[in-house]
Amino acid sequence: GASKVITQWSDEEITRYAYDYQTIEVLEDVPSYIIETNRYYVEQGACFINVISPVIGVNKGVDPTKMAKSLTAAQKAVPFLREYTMGNKGQWTIVAASNEVWAEAVFPELKGDVATEALWTALLNACRVYEDSDPIENWASHNSVLEKHNKILNDLNFKELRFKNSLGTDLTVGLVQNHIWSGGGEKTTTGVYFNPNIPTEETFTMPYKWATSGRVVATKPLNYNGTLIEDFYLVFKDGKVVEFEAKKEHKTLEELLNTDENARYIGEIALISHDSPISNTNLLFLNTLYENASCHMALGRAYPMNIKGGLTASMDELEAQGYNKSLIHVDFMFGSKDMSIVGVKQDGQEVVVFKDGNFVI
């Protein structure tokens, strides 16, 4: 067990007051004690458990520019923390806890404690925590399935993936040379096994920064720091978002894409069968961790683990191979029940990977 447990609290409603009443200059001023505290944790090799409990709509009406500048400043202040976690230098995971506001958004027909309890049940089921079985055994079995998917995809060694569905997605994603498919459990650079996200259904890898082209249509809202971006699409050319539209929170999407020079490029492409425990709940969780029930991509930074030698390579070496470096890493979902995916091998041979939303390999 842990020799010491340190709890750091944050409150989205209090943060909302900061957005409303503090100036941009104050929001961008990250106190040195926050920087040094996080540096201490990293130097001590701490394990991080991030327990999220989103308050849906808490930042509705916040000036998107103000929020974006604040979030960017926070990321710039502790680059070593992102490198520590995304570089698998220590164990980390993200889990979620129910709250009344979130629960009533997911279950609009329920109120108060009844809604909160219903969401707890849904969250635990999605995490494979059932009364009649051992969750540790459940996760060992699930990780084994994901590892099999990883092996199949790694053996195929695709040059690119082509996505199509009836909603308008028609997208080609090129992959870096020597890419690695990962998913389920991971190992730190010192060999310690851990599960980074609970729940997770994905197997994912690294796109080549400049090789995404076409149109992708999101199939679920993106809850970006308390603001719901809904009904949106992106158009890529040479890896970069060159056109976008959102029916709700267009300005927030624009600020997200303008976070830094590489926020318009992607750092992850993930495959998830539509037939999964989370998807089969038919619930809209309004949270990215629990929308991990659909093929998705991440705007921004890639994971070094997704390329051979990536965990020991320098940033210059990674970028030379097509790695995308950014302050952000933001997933959004675009999978659907009619999604088709064709993989193109290095010799041009085409392999059907997905049919009707599910793996067929």
Task: Spell out the key features of this protein.
nine-stranded antiparallel sheet, Thermophilic metalloprotease-like, 17 strands, alpha+beta, 361 residues, single chain
Structure description:
This protein is an alpha+beta fold and 361 residues long. The chain has one domain: Thermophilic metalloprotease-like, CATH 3.40.1830. It contains ten helices and 17 strands. It has helices at 12-21, 24-27, 32-43, 64-77, 79-86, 100-106, 112-126, 135-156, 250-257, 315-320; strands at residues 48-52, 92-96, 158-164, 170-175, 186-187, 193-194, 203-205, 207-217, 222-224, 227-237, 240-248, 266-271, 296-300, 329-333, 340-345, 350-355, 358-359. Strands 3, 4, 8, 9, 10, 11, 15, 16 and 17 form a nine-stranded antiparallel sheet that branches. A hairpin with a 2-residue loop joins strand 16 and strand 17 (358-359). It is globular and about 55 Å long.
Give the biggest sheet: 9 strands, antiparallel
- Spatial separation of the terminal alpha carbons: 40 Å
Number of domains as seen in the coordinates: 1
Count, helices:
10
Q: What coarse outline follows from CA principal-axis ratios?
A: globular
Q: Strand share of the residues?
A: 25-35%
Number of strands: 17
| CATH class label | Alpha Beta
Question: Helicity level, as a percent range?
Answer: 25-40%
What is the radius of gyration computed over CA atoms, rounded to a whole number of angstroms? 20 Å
Helix-strand topology string: HHHEHHEHHHEEEEEEEEEHEEHEEEE
Structural class: alpha+beta
> CATH superfamily, called what?
Thermophilic metalloprotease (M29)
